[in-house]
Specification:
The complex is a heterodimer.
Chain A: H1 3-6, E1 9-14, E2 19-25, H2 29-38, H3 43-50, E3 57-63, E4 68-74
Antiparallel strand pairs in A: 1-2, 2-4, 3-4
Chain B: E1 3-7, H1 19-27, E2 32-38, H2 45-49, H3 56-73, E3 77-84, H4 88-104, E4 110-116, E5 118-119, H5 121-129, E6 133-136, H6 145-149, E7 153-156, H7 160-168, E8 173-176, H8 181-193, H9 197-207, E9 223-227, E10 231-236, H10 245-252, E11 261-264, E12 267-270, E13 275-278, E14 284-287, E15 290-293, E16 299-317, H11 320-324, H12 326-341, E17 349-356, E18 376-384, H13 387-402, E19 417-418, E20 424-439, H14 443-453, E21 455-461
Parallel strand pairs in B: 1-2, 2-3, 3-8, 4-8
Antiparallel strand pairs in B: 1-9, 4-21, 5-7, 6-20, 7-16, 9-10, 10-14, 11-12, 12-15, 13-14, 16-18, 16-19, 16-20, 17-18
Classes of the chains: A alpha+beta, B alpha+beta.
């Protein structure tokens, strides 16, 4: 199943001036667990998805209290610099929609 | 004793506070009103240029609601990161607006504590000279004199203690320079309720964005937080919202790299073992936060500086043959700039082509940087040392999209469409130069420098009686 159909929230936002943080939040703990266990979202897989060096994925967290997977990417330039797109970092999440999560 | 804090907005003045839930909040007779008024989200420009980010009328609207509400109830009001930047201008602006509101409404006398936290780049240079380090946060290089010289304005982010001290000195209202969003709430909980720093900071963490901790998504609605020795209970004042374990825990991880830690100058709030419990279908209680004090002050410093002047132009391309060769078009334009102005670089000029319809939104993060639609929009952005030069370079860059030479192109009357034949002079380019922590050489200096960073002035207001 595509992540867009499984997750309740898929969002991105600035985490400070040098980073964009991504949250994938599931309605059901079971869906969250299944996605975590399948390993379809990982530091390497998101780096590959966005075409960036894995070193730029500075953090990857499975946050149980919110049934959420969170990862953070370092920008090339600080937010709001000329040439650096999306000053709020809020529109970076769409490529995550097509990640395939295997059936349970 | 438990204290109820009212949080009416996540960013005072950014859009006006919603009146209905605000009045509901006041009717619940909270023990204090607390509102943050700044954010680093708004980009480097407001701090770099030292200007407010929202119309003053909107800031006045929110301040008036909060001030009149607080004075009417006879409870403290704390405003954080005044006027978006938390610079001295921001603090002075909010104090002035409050004086005006007090005069207009004939308010009985009260005291404002103005707690300033702007720091001159030269002072930071002096600290480096005395052996301090400006440690880069989250992968930034440490700051040296060059970085400080490139900084136009800097602010230190205050924690709980200066704000609490102002309340303890008798302030009815505290207008803070740049402050930790959590600390402005914690100071009140500690001062009024004698509550521990753990739950006090936790309350701030949860309340700092007001209605963002509730669902469905609504901004600028009021939330109440009841803080006690062990935890915080959140109640939304907007009837259509609910604070659920999902909405609250989802907010706890919002806008941050690490969902488990909140740093303030004198320590860290450890949120590794938070428990979220639904008390009913609209209220959630959070507990389990642990306060870990540190033995050194670690004050965050934010700073921004101007890098040059900016101009933009907007173009469009609709020819599919040209779209297939768009990199050649951009290269033609770049080459013509080099021919006339030399190679680009920080000291010379910079040009950016934002190709909407390819990777304008995501830039280098776009996994699919291909034009597969029938048109693109291109925003040509240039930065140079003077407005005239940025304007001239942008003019040449955009016109050369129009004149790009492609073999066999069918359209020989112009290869791109002008949105308008004008180049738009934009505001200067600024950069976040500082996202650092000030680490002094000796622990003996910590307390003294902390006092120098955060300076409080007590201001008597409302003494004038209207004729």
């Amino acid at each position: 199943m595509r992540l867009v159909d499984l997750a309740k929230t898929i969002r991105s936002k600035n985490a400070g001036v040098d980073h964009i943080t991504f949250d994938v939040i599931f309605r059901e703990a079971a869906d969250y667990r299944r996605t975590v266990d399948a390993g379809v979202l990982s530091r390497d897989s998101v780096a590959s998805l966005y075409g960036i060096d894995p070193d730029r994925v500075v953090s990857f967290v499975a946050f149980d209290p919110a049934n959420a997977i969170k990862f953070t990417v370092r920008r090339r330039n600080p937010a709001g610099s000329a040439g650096e797109p999306d000053p709020f970092g809020s529109q970076c999440y769409a490529p995550l929609f097509d990640v395939e999560v295997p059936e349970a | 004793m438990p204290i109820t804090l009212m949080s009416p907005t996540g960013h005072l003045g950014f859009t006006p506070i919603e009146r209905g839930s605000f009045e509901a909040g006041l009717a619940a007779r909270p023990d204090a009103i607390v509102a943050d008024s700044g954010s680093a989200d708004i980009g480097p420009y407001p701090l770099g240029a030292d200007v407010g980010h929202s119309p003053e009328e909107w800031q006045r609207h929110d301040l008036e609601l909060c001030l009149l509400g607080a004075r009417d109830l006879g409870v403290p009001l704390v405003i954080g990161s005044a006027s978006d930047t938390g610079t001295d201008r921001g603090v002075d602006t909010f104090v002035r607006i409050m004086r005006e509101i007090a005069r207009e409404h004939g308010l009985a006398p009260f005291t404002i504590a103005a707690v300033r936290s702007e720091i001159a780049p030269q002072t930071l240079i002096d600290h480096l000279g005395a052996g301090a380090t400006l440690l880069g946060l989250n992968g930034r290089a440490d700051a040296d004199v060059d970085v400080l010289t490139a900084t136009d304005h800097a602010v230190a982010v205050m924690g709980v203690d200066p704000i609490r001290a102002a309340l303890e000195a008798g302030a009815d209202v505290v207008v803070c320079g740049r402050s930790s969003d959590s600390a402005i709430f914690a100071a009140v909980a500690e001062h009024l309720g004698g509550l521990p720093r753990s739950t006090s900071l936790l309350a701030g963490k949860l309340l700092e964005c007001a209605s963002f901790c509730a669902e469905p998504f609504m901004g600028k609605e009021t939330v109440l937080g009841e803080v006690d020795e062990d935890g915080v209970t959140l109640t939304p004042m907007q009837p259509q919202q609910r604070c659920t374990p999902a909405s609250v825990s989802g907010h706890a991880m919002y806008e941050r790299i690490d969902p488990y830690s909140e740093h303030v100058p004198d320590g860290t709030l450890d949120m590794t073992n938070l428990r979220f419990e639904a008390l009913d279908d609209r209220r959630t209680r959070v507990s389990g936060a642990v306060w870990r004090p540190s033995d050194r002050y670690r004050v965050k410093i934010e700073g921004a500086g101007q890098t040059g002047q900016r101009a933009i132009a907007i173009m469009g391309i609709r020819d599919p043959y040209t779209l297939e060769r768009i990199d050649d078009v951009l290269q033609w334009s770049r080459d013509k700039l080099v021919e006339r102005f030399g190679a680009p670089g920080d000291a010379a000029y910079r040009v950016h082509f934002h190709v909407y319809g390819r990777n304008g939104v995501l830039g280098d993060l776009e996994p699919h940087p291909v034009v597969d639609g029938h048109e693109v929009g291109i925003v040509v952005e240039t930065v140079a040392d003077t407005p005239a030069r940025a304007h001239e370079i942008c003019t040449l860059a955009s016109r050369n999209l129009f004149y790009a030479r492609l073999p066999d192109v069918k359209g020989t009357a112009g290869g791109a469409s002008f949105f308008s034949d004008e180049v738009l002079d934009a505001r200067p380019d600024y950069r976040w130069t500082l996202n650092h922590v000030l680490a002094l050489a000796d622990v003996d200096q910590d307390a003294r420098v902390h006092e120098e960073l955060f300076r409080t002035e007590m201001i008597a207001v409302g003494m004038e009686v209207p004729a």
